[in-house]
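ok so for the tutorial part 2 we go from a plain amino acid sequence to predicted C-alpha cells. step 1 is just haveing the sequence, like this:
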Amino acid sequence: MKIHLKGGRLIDPVSGTDAPQDIFIAAGKIATIGRAPADFHANKTVDASGLVICPGLVDLAARLREPGYEYRATLESEMAAAVAGGVTSLVCLPDTDPVLDEPGLVEMLKFRARGLNQAHVYPLGALTVGLKGEVITEMGELTEAGCVGFSQADVPIVDTQVLQRAMQYAKTFGYTLWLRAQDPFLSKGGVAASGAVASRLGLPGVPVAAETIALHTIIELVRITGARVHLCRLSSADGVALMRAAKAEGLPMTCDVGANYLHLTDMDIGYFDAQCRLTPPLRGQRDRDAIRTGVADGTIDAVCSNHTPVDDDEKLLPFGEASPGATGLELLLSLTLKWADEMRIPLVKALASITSAPADVLGSAGARAGQIAEGTVADLCVFDPAAHWQVQPAMLRSQGHNTPFLGYELPGRVRATLVGGQIVFEQRAPRESS
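step 2 — the prediction. this is what the C-alpha cells look like for a chain of 434 residues:
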C-alpha cells in the first residue's frame, strides 16, 4: 500500500519540524518527506490541507481489561478506541485476572493484539507474583515474552526490602520499574483527596503525604541501587517538587501524569459526581497548577490517558462505593491540546509530551515510536486542530463511556490514524480522494 499524505502541517517534536510537508509512505515505512520518490504511484492520496500530521500518540497507561474483565471492556473495543484517539502505541498494566506474572499470559496478550492489526501493545509485567508484594517475578522470562518493564499497578509493595531487592535485580539487568507512589496505610479507605472538599462531603481522604512518603522511599532506594524507575501518575504539587529535585540530582527517574489531572481539581467532585472518582484522587488547585507547570517545564516527562474503562453500573453507586476510573484513550489528544492552548504552549512542545517523550520512557522498546523521519515505521496521527467536538457516550468507541468530561466541548479531532503504513482509522474523510 502506497499512501500520499498531501498538504498537511507536519509536526515532529524530535527534529523540531513544524512546516507544511507532503509524506510518501511505502512498504509500511515513510519513504520520503517533501518530494515523491522516483516511480511513486500512490494507491491512496489523503488531502491533509488544514490538518496536522504528527507521530502516532504513545500512551504510557491504558487498561485493556483482558484477560479477566471483559464485562468492562474487550481488547477489540479498546484497540478501536486507541486508534480513534490517534494512539498507535500503548502500555498496558499487569492488574488483569489472572495477573500478568507469567510469560504465557504476556505472549497470549501480544498475540491477540497483533491479530487485531491496530495499535502496538507494550505490556508491563507484574513486579511480584500475583501483585502480592512478596515474591519477585521471573523478570528475565517476562522480558523475553515482551514486557517493557515491571509494575505493581495500583498495588503498593509494603515490604521495602522486597522493593529494594527488586531494584537491585532490575539494575543488574537493565530493567525499568514502573511504580506509583502511594503509602498503603495513609491511603487506606480513602476515596477523595484530604481537604476541605472531602471534609464537607464526609468522604474519607487520601492525604498528600501518602504520595510524598512513598516517593521519598522510592527516591532513597534509587540512590542506593541506581535502578531506573518511572513514577506513574503523580498527583500533588509536593510530589512534583520531589521529582524536580530528584532529576536535578541526576537520579535515573522519569514520571508521568494523567491527562485528567491537567484540568480537574477536587472541586469538580461537586455533589458526589462518581465520574470524578479516580485513582489517584483529584487534588486541589495548587496541585493542579503545579502539574500543569511540571509538564510545561519538563519535570513531568509525559502525559498519559490512565485509561480505565468501568462498567456503567459501577458508576451509578454512591461516590465512595463507585469504581474508580475513566475512559481516556480518545480524550488524550484533546485534553493535551486544551492544556497547551490555556498555557500558551507551542504545539510542537505539547505534542512531545504524548509522542516523543513517552517513547523515550519506553527506551529501546519505543525506538520505532514518537518520531517522523524517512525510513521509520509510518505510525502517524492526522488531526484537525481547529475542530471541536462534544464528549458524548455515543461518540466513544471504548466500551467504557465514563469520563468527567461528558458534555464538555474539546479541541482537536482525529481524522486518520496510520499504523505500520496502513490506515486503521478514518473519520468521515470528506477531504480524501483515491
